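Inverse folding, one chain.
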C-alpha cells in the first residue's frame, strides 16, 4: 500500500499540547488545507461547498512513542485503561486519525475547516463529505465515554492581559495567516477560552491546585498561531491568564 497526502494542514495549533482532544469542541479553531497541485485542487473541490461538514482522514505524524500497546489510557478514563480499538487514541497500529469538522470555506484550491483537533503540519490523506441522512445515528450508544463528568472552567484575564489580547488580534491580520486566524478580538478570545476550558493538562497535574508545595507545576502555556498563552489553575475550575508572549 502506498498513500500520498492530498495536502498538509495549516492549523491554529502549532503543538500537540492544548490541541482539543476531539473535533467540534472549539468553534473558532480553524485550519487551512491546501490541496496539492497534482490533485487538481479547483476541480477536485468542486461541489464540496454544498456540504456543511466533512470527514478528514489524516496521519498522526507527531506521535513520539512508537511502541504498540493493545490497551491505552485515554485522559477521560482518569487513569484506567481500555482496548485501543475502543478509543480514538493517536497511538494505534496505523497512526491514522479521523475527524468530523465543519467546512468554513472553500476557496482557491483550499478548504478552511473549523472545529479542528489536528496540529499544524498534519498530512491529510483524504477528505470526504459528511452525509447526515446516512451517517447520523441519534440512537448510538456511547460506550465508556458516556459517563464522564465535565467541569466548567472559568477564565480570569485582568485588564492588562485583555489589552495584550486586543493587540495580538490586530497583529493576527497578517496576509500569511489570513483564512485560518481569528478575524476579530472576540473570535481570538473564544478560541483561547474555548481551548483552555477543555483543560489540556495531563491527568497527573490535576488536583494539586490548592497545594502550595507540589512536585507538579501549576503554570502551563498553550501555543496558538504565533503566540503563547501562559496560565495557571487557581482552583480546578478557574484559570488565570498570566502572560501572552508573541513571536
Ligand atoms: C485523541 S486524537 C483524536 C483525533 C481524531 N479525532 C480521531 O479520533 O482520530 C486528538 C489529539 O491528537 C493529537 N494530534 C493532533 N494532530 C496530531 C498529529 N498530526 N500527530 C500527532 N498527534 C496529533 C493532539 O494532541 C489532539 O489532542
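Residues assigned per position:
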Amino acid at each position: 500500500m502506498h498513500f500520498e497526502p492530498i495536502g498538509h494542514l495549516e492549523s491554529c495549533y502549532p503543538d500537540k499540547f492544548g490541541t482539543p482532544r476531539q473535533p467540534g469542541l472549539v468553534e473558532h479553531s480553524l485550519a487551512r488545507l491546501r490541496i496539492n497541485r497534482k490533485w487538481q485542487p479547483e476541480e477536485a473541490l468542486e461541489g464540496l461547498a454544498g456540504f456543511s461538514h466533512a470527514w478528514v482522514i489524516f496521519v498522526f505524524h507527531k506521535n513520539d512513542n512508537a511502541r504498540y500497546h493493545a490497551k491505552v489510557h485515554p485522559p477521560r478514563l482518569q487513569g484506567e485503561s481500555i482496548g485501543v480499538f475502543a478509543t480514538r487514541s493517536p497511538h494505534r497500529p496505523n497512526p491514522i486519525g479521523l475527524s468530523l469538522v465543519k467546512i468554513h470555506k472553500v476557496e482557491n484550491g483550499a478548504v478552511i475547516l473549523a472545529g479542528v483537533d489536528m496540529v499544524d503540519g498534519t498530512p491529510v490523506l483524504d477528505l470526504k463529505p459528511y452525509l447526515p441522512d446516512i451517517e447520523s445515528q441519534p440512537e448510538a450508544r456511547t460506550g465508556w465515554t458516556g459517563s464522564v463528568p465535565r467541569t466548567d472552567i472559568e477564565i480570569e484575564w485582568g485588564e492588562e492581559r485583555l489589552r495584550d489580547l486586543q493587540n495580538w488580534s490586530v497583529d493576527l491580520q497578517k496576509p500569511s495567516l489570513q483564512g485560518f486566524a481569528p478575524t476579530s478580538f472576540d473570535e481570538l478570545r473564544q478560541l483561547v477560552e474555548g481551548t483552555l476550558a477543555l483543560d489540556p493538562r495531563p491527568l497527573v497535574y490535576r488536583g494539586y491546585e490548592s497545594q502550595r508545595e507540589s512536585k507538579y507545576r501549576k503554570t502551563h502555556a498553550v501555543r496558538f498561531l504565533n503566540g503563547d498563552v501562559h496560565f495557571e489553575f487557581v482552583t480546578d475550575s478557574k484559570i488565570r491568564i498570566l502572560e501572552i508572549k508573541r513571536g
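DSSP finds four helices and twelve strands in the chain. The chain has a mean pLDDT of 93.
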